[in-house]
Structures are given as structure tokens and as C-alpha cells.
Amino acid sequence: MSSAGSGGPAAGSISAIAERAGVTRLTVYRHFPDDTALFDACSAHWLAGQIPPAPDTWAAIPDAAERLRTGLADLYRFYRDGQTMLTNIYRDKAAIPEAHRDGIDQRDAAFADVLATPFDGPAARRALVRALIGHAISFWTWRSLCVDQRVPEADAVEAMVGLVLQAAQR
Description:
mainly alpha
């Protein structure tokens, strides 16, 4: 059995965490009374070593294409830097505490909203642009393009920007 960092939340167990830490299960439970407390601590520990995306920086860019390009490059860098953990988290999303699942969904929606804001046009076109941005910011889109297909990140960003801009101009 593995800990969440190496095998993901679905493969993790209190016994595996206790064994890896060299303590008893009871000690783990004393410090982390439930899954949410344990996941909070693990998330905070992991995030402390990361450079998170900066949507406030993206929001300051008025040009829609440049905002999208900057935001995607920032997200794709974050995905690359945290690839192992993020693969586990997104793969095992159903196994993580509900509050964290909701937080991931809300964060991703907020990222997409920041990137979609400068686009205008008819409602149907805005909905398509928003959906394509949602696809472009997906961890799984990045992973498919940059890891599975070995597309360089800069090219993946440009491909997604081009896709969104084409839809926006239709």
C-alpha cells in the first residue's frame, strides 16, 4: 500500500501513512481526526513547495489572446511542475474529501472565467468560447498534449489559443 503522494488518494491508507512516518495508526488519528484534516495537511505541505498559477496577473491583461496565452502558459507550467501529484489527485478525484473536490472544481471554473472574460460576442459564441477555454485549462488536456503526445508546451498553448480564437471569431 502506498501513501497518497506516491500512489494517490485512492491507494492511500492510514496504515500506509503511519508506516511511512514510523508511527502508529493511533498517532496519525490523534493528529488528523478525519480524512479532510489529513487531506488539508497533505495539500498544504505539497502546495508549500509549488509556485501556484497567478490568475490575478492574467486578469490584468486586457487583450483576450494575450491573457489566454499567459494563463495557459502559467497553468501548463504548474501542471508540469506538479505532474506526479496532480495526476494522482485528478485521477482519484472521486476519492478525495468532497470539500476538496468542490474546491478544485471552483478553482478551475474561476481560472476559466478569468480567461473568458475579455471575449465578447453573441451568447452562443461566448458559451462555445467558455467551453473551449474549460477544455484548454483541463489538466487532462495538458497531459494528453504535452505528456502523451509529446507536444512542446509552447506549441500546446498556441494550439489551444488558436482553437479558442477561431471559435471567438466565427
